[in-house]
Amino acid sequence: MPFRDTQMHLRDILQSIDRIEEFLGGMSLADYVNDFKTQSAIERQMQIITEAAIRLGDDAESICPGLDWKGIRGMGNILRHEYRRVDDRIVWNTVKTELPPLRVAVNRALI
């Protein structure tokens, strides 16, 4: 399987967004902050999203314009390499504000 299979990486992003939504269900921020298992699951899915973004490379902007691809990749670096700096509130806000437009853009690219 090629490393740079655009369709596969886009599908991986969507699958991770779906899983994040499933894991969070109707949770509030307070629920999330107090649930280590859910935090771990969300962070893992965010790692997959950020790795897929890295693998899309410079093409990401032309495939799904207008998204903060640099920020998405940067979050992955923090999750992987600076895990002690992970702020639950930043992860929560990213999931709630950044993933919906990412979903829309990726769905549009897959059509």
Brief descriptors of the model:
111 residues, mainly alpha
Explain what you see:
With 111 residues, the chain is an all-alpha fold. It has one domain. Helices cover 77% and strands 0% of the residues. The longest helix is centred in the middle third of the chain and has 21 residues, at 36-56. The protein starts with 5 loop residues before the first helix and ends with a helix.
- Low-confidence sequence ranges: none
Return Rg in Å.
14 Å
Summarize the main sheet: none
Helix content: over 70%
Topology:
Blueprint: H1 6-24, H2 29-33, H3 36-56, H4 59-63, H5 69-81, H6 88-97, H7 99-110
Brief characterization of the structure:
This protein is mainly alpha-helical. It has helices spanning 6-24, 29-33, 36-56, 59-63, 69-81, 88-97, 99-110.
